[in-house]
Structure formats: C-alpha cells, structure tokens
Amino acid sequence: MKNLWEIFYKGLFDQNPIFRLALSLCPALAVTSNVYNALAMGLSVMFVITANNVVVSIFRKWVNPKVRVPVYITSIATIVTVLILTLQAYLPDVYKELYLYLNLIVVFAIILARAEVFAAKNPVFPSFLDGLGMGAGFAGAMVFIAIVRELFGNGTLMGMQVFGASYDPALIMILPPGGFIVIGLMIASFNLIGEHQAKLKEAKQGSDA
Amino acid sequence: MEEYLKLFVASAITNNMVLTQFLGLCIFFGVSKNLNASIGMGMAVTSVMTISTLLAWAVYNYVLHPLGLEVLMLITFVVLIAGLVQLLEMVIKKHAPALYNMWGIYLVLIATNCVVIAVPITNAESHNGFMTSFVLAIGSGVGFALALILMASLREKLQYADVPKSLQGLGISFILAGMLALSFFGFSGMITL
Fold it and tell me: What ipTM was reported for this prediction?
C-alpha cells in the first residue's frame, strides 16, 4: 500500500514534470496567464497521461518493442482527439482558447516518457497511479505558476478582484516575457530549497556521527 | 506580394514561435548552449517545417477535407511528420553524408516536436491557402532559427558572468529568454495582420 502511495506521490514533488524534469514547458508558459486556463490545461494533460498509461499498460505484452514508439504516439493521438472533441462539445470556451495547445498535447515529452519508463513495464493499477500522480504534479505546477502571474499581472484570481481597484497591475507578468522570468525565478527557488534541504541533511548526518 | 511579405515578417518576428507563442522550448533551451549546434538546428527545423507543412497541406485539403475526416487530422499529421523525418534522414545519410554529420542528430530530435506540428495545425484550422501556408512555414522557421541563434550567442557571453548558484543553468536561461522576449515584444504593433 505504501508502495502505491509512493508511485503516486513522486510526481507531485520529487519528479515534478515542470520544475524538476523541465519537460513539457511550452504549455507551462503559454496558458498560464490566467488560472482558469491553466487549470483546464492541467486537467486535460492529467487525463491524457493517465488514460495513455492505462492503455499502454494493458497492451504492453503484445506490443513489439521495435514499433513501440509509433504505437504509443498513435494511442496518445487518439486519446487527445477524444479529449478535444469532448471539450469542443461541452466546454466550447475552453476549446476556443486552448485549441492549439490542446492539439500539441500529442507531442508532450512527459506523456511519452511515462509510457516508456513506467507503463510499459508495470501492471495496470500502478500505471494508473503513476499517470495520476504525474498529471497532478503537472496540473499543480501549472496552477501555481498561473496564480503568481494572474495575481501580480492582473490583480485577480479566477477573474475575482483580490488587491482592490487601487492596485496597478504589473502587466509584464501576463505578457509572454513575464512568463519566462517567473518560471526562471521559480526554478531558481526550487533549487534553493533543494540545496537547503541537502545542507540540513548533511548537518544532521554530521551530528549523528 | 506585399501581403506575403507582411505575413513573413509577422511570423518571423512579431509572432515569433518561441518568444511569443512558447513553442519548441525543449529544443530552444536544450540546443542553445552551443552556437554551431544552434545554426544547424535552426536550418534543420526550417527545412523540415517547410516540407512537412506543404505535405500536410496537401493531405488535409485533398484527402481529409473532401472525405470529411478532419477528426483524423492530428493522428495523420503526427504520423506524416514522423515518417517524413525518417525518410529525410535516410535520404540525407545516403546522398549527403557530410550534411548528415552536421544535421543528422537534430533531424531525429525534431521528429515529434511542437514547433513542427503547430504550423500545419494552424494552417488547417484557419483554412489557409497554399501560398499563405508556405510563407507561414518559412517565416516561422526563420523566426525559430533567429531566436535560437540569438539565444546561443547570449548564452556564450553568459559563461563569463558570475551567476548566483541557484540561478545557474536553466534558471538564468529562462530569465535571459524573458529579456529576449521583451526586446521582441518591442516589435509588436509594427505589423498587424
């Protein structure tokens, strides 16, 4: 049971797709200028990664290793098409806003990487959890970036005023250049926290010895 | 003619793929450590993008659209581009080994890359004509190459800078890209389509 929890949990922090692995950065910048879009995109990716992990895991014994990549890509493309058609029917606003980036989920490195690294070698349920964890880590990071950008760039959260009308928004945050700078600083702070933790650990080991 | 020129400048500079639409960031940050590699990659992306856009345009307008199979667009484009890149790799390896040594590794990298697939999708979605698609592909490719080469040159200078430890590597590269994006942003409004 503990093992299963770890499979889910590692995607959230230790192997966070955006901050730790620096994979699939395109959407992390492109759709994070407001929280609503970031959440929609994050959940879409979570759905695709989980569904694809399950499919790959079910068929893992029948797929010849030589043709595995085309098989995975076809599976991902099918799932993405299903997702896009569903969104087009039920959430047309989201579809219109995210159209290009939804299509590009097909070529996200993180999805192919999870299929290859995890789902191709593990049974269905752990693969499902792995996809869910990685997807949640991705969605969480997206929302986190979007909160910072929307809050400072527009003074709102999910469209609601937070700072009051007298706040003069730093427009650069929601413009493309701001996206780069925010992510750069976030990666740096993740590194800083990592360094600090390593130092603490070292100090603790030193006092134990 | 003028309208195509406008489209070219717009897709290369004001709507730059990397710096305003955030496409192809993996390659952008991965390859820009080295100036020579950036030049090779920029050329490889431009040529693959142009060829695959034309091919995808033909397939979409003569096969998928008449048959009402737009739903299959995504799968078709992915398979088409991956196949094309594989084919190009084999042809170049056989007939131009020198070129292959320069470009070979980049070709494989762009097989499934978001820059290369974004342009055909945009064209299909906005029902662009042949010339428009062609110009858009070349413009986007040149814009990508331009951003990549500029970034690589900046990062070479960065090697002599004293960067705080936690910012080193990806962190400072992102901030640098932000500055570059800011300067490209200065061109916006110059051309409106």
Answer: 0.79
